[in-house]
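We emphasize that the prediction below concerns an isolated chain of 158 residues; any contacts that depend on oligomerization or on bound cofactors are therefore not represented. The input was used exactly as deposited, without trimming of termini.
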Amino acid sequence: MNVVFLDYDGVVNTPMWNADGTRCSFGFPQDNKVNNFQCVQWVSEFCQKFNYSIVVSSTWRLDDNYKECLINGGLRNGIKILGRTPCLNGENRGAEIQKYLSDHPEITNFLIFDDDTDMGDLIDRLVECNPNIGFGLTELCKAQRLHEKFENERMCGS
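Result of the prediction step, given as a token string:
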């Protein structure tokens, strides 16, 4: 099983100008959706093309509507949101992802889409996003290269 560990802020929720041009704002869980539809479409494109499901690693995972926020932000039908990483107080995001992986041995390949680099030993799986822009074509291409690299390693037993 292929999984993307997905952060929201800086990946699919980015600074956006309000329609009246007065200020720049983010979406919040109480808005019930992430705000960057285009970034959600790029993530969706990757997931559909390479058969990835999503595990939410964002702090938004602490809210009950964490799945709806992504779906309402434009996640394409058919892409599964499997769940969320555990909250390990005092640990970095990489440790939380590692715990999820330890609890789910059915995951054979994974990537991390995030704007932070606190991934520990999992840093080679990171597709780092510019937090002001989010996940776009550049990140899609990097994710594709990483997917192919790790899939080839897995297939060849490396």
